[in-house]
Structures are given as C-alpha cells and as structure tokens.
Amino acid sequence: MSNLSPVVARVTDRIIERSRPSRSRYLELVERERDRHSDRSFLSCSNLAHGFAAAGDDKPAIATGGAINLGIVTAYNDMLSAHQPYGRYPEQMKLFAREVGATAQVAGGVPAMCDGVTQGFDGMELSLFSRDTIALSTAVALSHAMFDGMTLLGICDKIVPGLVIGALRFGHLPAVFVPSGPMPSGISNKEKQKTRQLYAEGKVGREELLASESASYHTAGTCTFYGTANSNQMMMEMMGLHIPGAAFVPPNTPLRQALTRAAVHRVAAMSKKGNDYRPMAELVDEKAIVNAIVGLLATGGSTNHAIHLPAMARAAGVIIDWEDFDELSAAVPLITRVYPNGSGDVNHFHAAGGMAWVVKELLGAGLAHADILTVAEGGMSDYASEPVLMDDTLAWTPAPAESGDDTMLRPVSDPFQPDGGMRLVSGNLGRGTIKTSAVDKERWTIEAPCRVFDTQEAVAQAFKAGELDKDVIVVVRFQGPRANGMPELHKLTPPLGVLQDRGHKVALVTDGRMSGASGKVPAAIHVTPEALAKDGKPGPLAYLRDGDVVRLAAGDGVLSTSADLSSREPAQAPPAGMGMGRELFAMFRMNAGGAEQGGSAMLEVAGL
Ligand SMILES: O=C(O)[C@H](O)[C@@H](O)[C@H](O)[C@H](O)COP(=O)(O)O
Ligand code: SF4
Asked: Which Pfam families match (predicted)?
C-alpha cells in the first residue's frame, strides 16, 4: 500500500494528464530512435572508420559493433572551479570502461559559463541561453550515433539542465550524470556576505574584498553555497540519474574515483547490449520530475529551477507549470537549511546526513515517488543511503536515524517551515516566484512606494546617491528572456541587504532572475509576462512609475499595485546590448518563450 501524499499524487496525476499528448509523441520518437540508431551497426564503413580512426587500442572493439561504446559529453574547462577536475576524467573513464569490456570516447564538449564570473556585467546576458547552447552542443556530440550510452559531465547552473535537455533527445540511450564534488569549505558564506556589504558601503576597499572572496572560492570543486549548481546535484539524486550519493562527495578523493568508476560500469550495464537496459527516456518521466520539484522545495533550492525544470521536463514531453510548484510547496516542508537558507554549506550538509537523509525523509513521508526507474538497480530507495569505501570497495550505509545537525537537517515531522522554500506570487503585475526559505518570515510582506529602473547599474547609482534610504520596492524591468536574456541580478543583494539592515522595508520585483545564492532580501522574480512587449503588448511592469505603491505578500501569494495602470503609456525598453557576444544571441531572445515555460527559443521553435 503506497503512503504517497494525496497532494503529490494529485499534482502528479494532473501533470500526467496534461502531458499525455506530448509524452506519447516523445516516447514514439524514442521508440523510432531505438530501432534505427540504438547501435552503430547501421553506419556505413566509411562513417564508422571516421568514428574510430583515432581510437587506438579501442579500434577493434568499436569496429566490430559488438562492444558497448560510451559517449562522454564533457563540460570541462579550467575556469569553473566545479568543472576543473573533469580534465582528467575521460582518460580514467576509458580505463573503467575497458574493465567491463566496453570502450569510451569523448563525444564532444559543451560550454560551461560561470555565473560567478559574469555576475553584474554584460556576459551575464548570455547565461540563460548558454543552457540551450549546451543542449544543442550535447545533441551535436551524440548525433554521431556511435554510442550505446551517455556519460554526462557537468555540474553548474545551466550545464546540468542543458545536458539533460540535450541527452533526453537521445532518450533511447541510457545516461548517467557524473559529478566531481564540492570544494573544501573556505571562510563562511556569512563572513563573505558581511565583507561585501562593508564594500557596498565603502567601508572596505577592493583589496579586502578580493582577499575575502578568494578565501571563500579557494580551490577546485563546486562552490559550497546551496545555489543552482548544488541544487542540480540534489535533483540528479531525486531523479535517480546519479550513482546514489555521488552529489556531495569531495573531488580528488578515492571515494570520488570509485563513484566515477561505478558510473561507467553501470551505464554500460544499462545499455541495450548490457544486462539491464534502462533508456534515459524511461527514467525521466512525470514522477521523476515531481521528485525533482519536491526535492527543490524541501531543500530550499535555487529559484532558477522554476525556469530550468519546465524546460528539462518539456524535453521529455512532460509539461509542468508554477501552479504545480505552488501546490506542492504547500505540502512539502522545508527540512534543510543550507546557505543562503542557513549558515552551513553543502559540506556541512553532507556531513550531517546529506541527500541520504533528505531522500529517506521524503520517501518515508510519502512526499516523493518511490517507484521510479533509476540508475541505481534498487530504485529510489537506494538513494536513501550514503556511499563509503570499505576496504577499498564501494559500499553504501543507510541514512542516519537522527540528523547529524538539526540546525541544518530536520525530519519531516519537525521541519524548519511547514511548507517549501519557493512560492508563486501573482496579481495585476503578473506572476513571479519568490524564495521564501532564505527570507525572514517578518519580511514576507512588504508594501511600499516603488522606484522603477531599467538596468541594475541604475539601481547601484541610486543606492550610492542615497536615494533608496527608505522603505522601497525596487523594480528592475526589461530583464526578461526576450529583453536582454534574463540575467541574474545578484549584485543587487549587497546594497539591498544594506538598506534592509538599516531597518528599511525593502523588496525587489523583476522580470529577471536572481542567483540561487541570493537570499535575505524578499524578491519577486521571473515576473511574467515580461515588461518587453510581445505581439505589441507590454507586460504590466512596463506601466509602473516611481511612487506607485506595490504590495508583495509571499504568504498570500500576491504581487500587485494599487496604481491604475489602465490609461498609461508603457515605458520604452532600452536597446538590446551589443558586445560580449550578446548580438549573436538575438535569435534566442526573439523567439524565447516565457519564464514559466522555461524561457527557451529552442523548445518553442521546435514545438516541444
Ligand atoms: O544560481 C546560482 O547559484 C548562481 O548563479 C551562482 O552560480 C553564481 O555564481 C553566484 O553569483 C555565486 O554567488 P556569488 O556571486 O555571491 O559569489
Ligand atoms: S557554482 Fe556558480 S560560481 Fe561556482 S563554479 Fe559553478 S557557476 Fe561558477
């Protein structure tokens, strides 16, 4: 007898019903691809020879077509601390593949943008669309049809979503995501944030700021705040796309290498030529997507997944919307507090029980689907265990019975908040999302006159000029997907945090995004429809003026103004930016769908 929560069951059934036509079209495609391209025997001799010409000792195995050949899609680069460890992975993975009579080839690389580097300047306007660029690059890599399985190397914000979207279009193949792990903890995130606010107030200089930042981001591995990258890792566990517990094991350790090896062995076994065929299309279904949403809500994950998850789901023919998130949020309690939702980081979270604890609690409370197909042979329950090395052999120990730190991890029976970390707000200014898990409850409702800006730079200038030292709702518009690529406006966190610490009631309202690491200041983001006109009709934010009273009430789900916008002329959007490659992304902007549908031109134009 299932103990599944009636709310989770109801939302899942609604998604299944809504997705029926698109999901069946997707599964028909997968069926066709499985028949036509699930191994390389259909390739001509010339095609094949091109595919293994440089494969050295692996040539005979690849040439015969009998051996399992794995495609490695890698987001390696030296600049992202999270992806830098991937440099050595392919050579190791080829050895691991040969251990089970398989081979592996790097099928292709995908770009990986670091939002931490581009935060606050023009490059950030490529961020959202870099996700679709990654999906396109994944498809280019896998389109050679040389492969019996996919090993996907990517961690950060848009990289996992892009890899998922691209790989799902080859859903007739099995897939495993191979993470590299979080960097060892540096100075605390709170210390980092304090120095930033002192810098914003002119009380410390660049030298002190750089020293503080470098003590936080100090070596290889994923940044240790619970932002979009680490929310990706959580979701891969909740969807069963990892080897269980791979998310937060540190890089460059024997356990990390054992997990990578297990991933290679496992995806070979899951191929059609293996003994346990599990195509990715059958793992990523409506229930797996609901598990990802539930994990996001229970852990206070990144608001960016209110945009990425709808796009990822669409690639599998699954249609979700923000009502699904909101309804699940009311039933899924917040059971973790990892910075910015608390003070500890993901290393502390992992040490306190980590994902094994989260999965155990969610399955035990019937808040996650236990009956999804996963990379792990035993299904979702295998993810309620933590990987360890016992005499150099990979093994798993069950999640601890008690939380290792109840300031970070709580049971469902005694949560930090009775509901999830993310809410829908809507009204006469549109629909947006707000991350309540990172904001003190007394700040969930802010009603104040607004100041309206068309760029985040203008906000910084107004702050420096002392114009914002009051109760104020800062509106930053023309930041949507079609306006300028929907950048994160995370650089606004320190100045708005200073205003809040001075005792003012402050909130942000924008059709742009925030970082998964943003917190503290209430922010209604992803406001849809965006301010930039679509089919000649601007979004409501285009009609706001300085002084209009705006109300943001996360508890009631309200985003509205008392001003009468009906007779106003809309503001004109600033011209689209040139430089930093932004002009090359005009085609993405022109055709982008709304944030609630994933903000993707690629999916819109493809009719997915
Ligand atoms: O969504 C996210 O998690 C962010 O995009 C994150 O990847 C980004 O890099 C932040 O900017 C880091 O935080 P700081 O800018 O505060 O270091
Ligand atoms: S977590 Fe963010 S800041 Fe850190 S490497 Fe990844 S993209 Fe860059």
From this structure: ILV_EDD_C, ILVD_EDD_N
Is 408's C-beta closer than 6 angstroms to any atom of ligand 2? no
ipTM of this predicted structure: 0.97
Q: Is 223 marked as a binding-site residue?
A: yes
Q: What is the CATH number of the domain that holds 523?
A: 3.50.30.80
Work out which ligand 1 atom sits closest to the CA atom of 196: 16
CB of 345 sitting under 6 A from ligand 2: no
Number of domains the chain is built from: 2
CB–CB of 80/114 below 8 Å? yes
Classified as helix, coil or strand, 73 is strand
90 upstream amide cis, omega within 30 of 0: no
Whether 530 lines ligand 2, by a CB cut-off of 6 Å, is no
DSSP lists the bridge partners of residue 149 as: 70
Both 458 and 540 in one domain: the answer is yes
> Which three-class secondary structure state does DSSP give residue 65?
coil
Query: What span, in angstroms and rounded, lies between the C-alpha atoms of 115 and 491?
Result: 11
Identify the domain containing residue 460 by its residue range.
Answer: 422-574
Inside any domain, residue 552: yes
Which ligand 1 atom is the nearest neighbour of the CA of 230? 3
157 lines ligand 2 (CB under 6 A): yes
Is the entire prediction scored with pTM above 0.90? yes
Count of alpha carbons within 13 angstroms of residue 92, beta-carbon side: 18
Q: Which residues line ligand 1 (CB under 6 A)?
A: 115-116, 119, 157, 227-229, 302, 304, 488, 490, 515-517
In a domain, 581, yes or no: no
pLDDT digits (tens, 9 = 90+) for 175-202: 999 999 999 999 988 899 899 989 988 9
Say if residues 108 and 72 touch (Cβ distance below 8 Å).
no
Inside any domain, residue 175: yes
